[in-house]
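I trust your eye. Have a critical look at both lines of this record:
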Amino acid sequence: MNTQKLREKCFGIEEFTADILNWIQSENLWNIWVPKTYGGLEMNLSEGLQMLREVSKIDGSLGWTITLCSGANYFVGNLKEGTIKKIFNNPKATCLGGSGAIKGTAEKVGEKYRISGDWNYATGSHYLSHFTLNASIIENGVPLKNEDGSEKFLSFILPKDKITIISDWRAMGLKATLTNSFKVHDVLVGEEYSFEYDRFHQPQAIFQLPFRVFADLTLWVNYIGMAHHFHKEAKNLTKCNYLDMLMHELKIADKMLFNYAEELEAVISKKKPIGGNKIEEIHKSASNSVRNLSEAIIKIYPALGMRACSENQELNQVFRDYFTATQHHNFVNR
């Protein structure tokens, strides 16, 4: 399916059709980061970011869903081999997603955990084979603490038949991401389905990245892709000078993003750690870039006329998708 055909199929829908989902599976895009050993594409950081940039340029919901679900499949690096083989027994159909919030509880019962709670914002909820969640650990009725006094939590993976989806996604954009809430009630799971998100068991370079850096870069590239799409559509309606401002910011963002990717790959190849200062630098750069892109788009929008306000126009959908994405907590300064 070519880019234009895919864009047409994504326009105006509130849920991906079977042919869109089949295309994602045929391209194995849920598994951008998954090792080839387990049926994935095993892309390096630069390759994966380039792929995410291209799909987010096609459609915001498409890029966002593939980013967050492939980002959840990235947790393959946190799992032990036996668990991986159970979850990724049909790799192209394996699609993880869920919530990063620590909201529910997991009561330790022998070598299992009894999980209950509700979580918000599971991107791709209707497309998932498994849900990921974070839960506070309780043992003998007492919440456990880490050595520093913070609450102890673990991440878990549960099959979709143990989950109840709450259909509450009513955002103005990214509609087809179906980023619904979900709940779990009294589900018992083996400890092999628990993991710590910052402990890895796979040797590939991508799993040597601090998770915060991985999240920053993979989200940032979505804003860049959607902003490129906005620029493409907007230049058909106006010649205002702010178009040049947006393209200037896009060139800076593209260069900075991929320079960081190459720099990180070089550091990892030398088996050196990525320091806290670099992690903070990347987060600040990404946050500033998203802010600059947003300001440029907002300055262009008043010059676009009524067509930009019409929901049956592609430009309007791109605008709504982009600014829905800006509300993700990662880059929001409240």
Summary: The domain at 96-195 is CATH 2.40.110.10 (Butyryl-CoA Dehydrogenase, subunit A; domain 2). The chain has a mean pLDDT of 95. The chain has three domains: 3-78, 96-195, 209-331. The chain is about 40% helix and 20% strand.
